[in-house]
Amino acid sequence: MVGLVRSEASAKKLMAKTKCSLEEVVISDVTQMQFENVGDDIQQNPWPRALDGTEAMVICTSAVPQISKLSVIKAMLKIPLNILAKKKAINFRDLVFKYKPGQYPGMVDYVGQKKQIDFAKKLGVKHVVLVSSMGVLDPNNFLNQIGKDKRGKGHGDILVWKRKAEKYLCLSGLQYTIIHPGGLVDTESGKMELELDVDDALMRNEKKSISRGDVANLCIAALTVSGGKSVSFDCIGREVPDENAHVRSAEDVFKDFLKTGKTADYRLGPASY
Ligand SMILES: NC(=O)c1ccc[n+]([C@@H]2O[C@H](COP(=O)([O-])OP(=O)(O)OC[C@H]3O[C@@H](n4cnc5c(N)ncnc54)[C@H](OP(=O)(O)O)[C@@H]3O)[C@@H](O)[C@H]2O)c1
């Protein structure tokens, strides 16, 4: 197994966290990924040898917004007034987020995903799992506003670009599994009952979170029990009343979902998607 990270700093963090070796890490900015063979010499790989013979790829890159320090200071200064007015101390929507130059959603979540999908084809990968996000059908979803100014200008629309990349994968000819998780939380996996559905139906739930570990287990289930089927689905975790209660494994939940024959309908959503 090989993990791709953007920078040396991210590689060090990953190695410290997972205790993996240097050979298991590839550093590449996906927005700049190159994968042409050098001349006619098929011996010369433009990518690390560790990637040769790759059978499956899990894509979970995503543009990372940075918080504007100025907006944090402004929000802090407003706290006393908000408390006096019996409002929320900090209004999350007052905080301003920006993407680093060249690292905004159009580049990372669309160009970067497309490059990885093309790269998968080049490597002869058989199955691509793409971790996208729930809410992709709603252009007014708050996540799409991140990176834009008050007039709606600037680089944003992360879910719009994710949806476009999903469509690219669907048309790629590769076997695919597209996973739309709700909000990711760092709780222990296997503690919540997983619920899978399609087309943002789960957005109606009050609680829409899922553990990162459960999403990872769904990725593994997709690679092991899909049986040649390509599907796209949403997922959340439901709390169970008793923490010792039995919850079905990600693999069992995914197998049952496959039996329903459901998959996302890519004709839905605004025509510009
Ligand atoms: N967080 C949520 O609540 C949530 C909800 C639904 C779906 N998701 C999806 O779940 C996945 C993981 O989310 P997360 O919250 O764990 O995100 P995250 O921690 O921000 O991870 C995104 C990763 O993408 C990497 N990345 C960004 N730009 C890159 C580039 N140009 N080249 C190579 N790597 C790049 C980042 O690398 P660096 O560490 O170097 O920045 C980071 O490791 C994403 O697809 C996200 O859209 C997240």
Main attributes?
Rossmann fold; binds NADP nicotinamide-adenine-dinucleotide phosphate; single chain; 5-stranded mixed beta sheet; 16% strand; alpha/beta; 11 strands; 273 residues; two-stranded parallel ribbon
If you had to describe this structure to a student in words, what would you say it looks like?
The longest helix has 19 residues. The chain is built from 7 helices and 11 strands. The chain starts with a strand and ends in a 13-residue tail after the last helix. The model has no long low-confidence stretch (mean pLDDT 92). With 273 residues, it is of the alpha/beta class. Helix 3 runs parallel beside helix 5 and helix 6 packs across helix 7. It has a domain of 183 residues: NAD(P)-binding Rossmann-like Domain (Rossmann fold). The strands form 4 sheets. It has a 5-stranded mixed beta sheet with strand order 3-6-7-11-9, with helices on both faces. Strands 1-2 form a two-stranded parallel sheet. 32% of the residues lie in helices and 16% in strands. The structure holds NADP nicotinamide-adenine-dinucleotide phosphate (NAP).
Outline:
32% of the residues lie in helices and 16% in strands. The chain is of the alpha/beta class and 273 residues long. The longest helix is centred in the middle third of the chain and has 19 residues, at 105-123.
Q: What percent of residues adopt helix (DSSP H or I)? A: 25-40%
Helix-strand pattern, N to C? EHEEEHEHEHHEEEEHEH
Structural class: alpha/beta
Strand percentage lies at: 15-25%
Number of helices: 7
> What is the CATH architecture assignment of the domain at 55-65 and 101-272?
3-Layer(aba) Sandwich
Instruction: Give the end-to-end Cα distance, rounded to a whole number of Å.
Output: 33 Å
- Spell out which ligands are present: NADP nicotinamide-adenine-dinucleotide phosphate
What is the CATH level 1 assignment of the domain at 55-65 and 101-272?
A: Alpha Beta
* Average predicted confidence as pLDDT: 92
CATH homologous superfamily identity of the domain at 55-65 and 101-272: NAD(P)-binding Rossmann-like Domain
Total beta-strand segments:
11
Give the spatial strand order of the biggest sheet: 3-6-7-11-9
Q: At the third CATH level, what is the topology name of the domain at 55-65 and 101-272? A: Rossmann fold
Radius of gyration: 20 Å
Main β-sheet description: 5 strands, mixed
